[in-house]
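seq as requested:
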Amino acid sequence: MLPYGRQSIDASDVAAVVAALGSDWLTTGPRVRQFEADIEAVAGAPAVTVTNGTTALHAAYAAAGVGSGDEVITTPMTFVATASTAAMLGARVVFADVEDETANLDPAAVEALVTGSTRAVTAVDYAGHPAEYDALRKVTEPAGAVLIGDAAHAIGSTVDGRPVGTLADLTTFSFFPTKNLTTAEGGAVASTRPDLLERARTFRSVGMVKDPARLRRPDEGGWFYEVHEFGLNYRLPDVLCALGSSQLLRLADFKARRQHLTARYDELLADVPGLRLPVQRAGVDPMRHLYPVRVLDGRRREVYERMHAAGIGVQVNYIPVYWHPVFEDLGYRRGMCPVAETFYAEELSLPIFHDLTDADQDRVVETLRGILGS
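struct tokens:
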């Protein structure tokens, strides 16, 4: 089965992991700090590593001070963790609709939902195309809300030359194997605001504070630490950070290959009836994590099943978050975000990853053409 996404591991990645295994530090060592510095060089903002993209979101919400009685506005067109991690901190999640062109959070829809209880607004860079952060900031700043970017799909993307880590107050990344680079499991939180980044760093380390300037009792001894707020152990080990640093050395090549495959899809599928292709807005230089097409005329399920039968592992990204029973049981109902629901009914992600060959891509295109032409 040809997958819709997969990792690319080469000999340099293996060597980096082996070297870490032979070192004195398997976790909380120098490779963690190195990987964080390497992320900053790409994301444009200082970063804290965590165990995965979900814990990155949890840490970001904790850093933003999200808690009981707060509201978090976000998109339904995302993986459930974008919303569930806010709910787990006691917040009420409010879903705003998406833009038809990009499936990204619609700033006008967000503006209509902001209240005095809005603590954060979280956008998702769907498929690697950054959201409209400048427009969203015009909504969040007057409301005193924190702007969060879920850039799980988008490390390596830019807007008008600005890397994604600089567009929001807090930005989260995922390094799952299907993403733009991998640490097997892993994630990060980046921020241009030192106060928020320090809160995220403390939260991912069980809330431990060791800085003498922050201790209430600084004279206890070199071993001493305090916990001022509860946190969790979300630390990414040196072994996986070594893999991440190695992968980042190949990020430009990863991006070039994904852009090549995107351009070929754009050209080869341009005249296929019953198919709508993704768009790229002016000023956006995306690193495509997904290539999401829209299958029209109610044929998405048929196409999905026939592509799988042909050995091509297309995917659907995503089920509207509030359709999940955990949100239905909280009173959320279908129909809340009609643009997102229409997008979901038509969306199909075609295979795109670094090691996908042109011949593999030709097979995808020919199979899809054959199905839609029948």
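The two ends are 23 Å apart (CA to CA).
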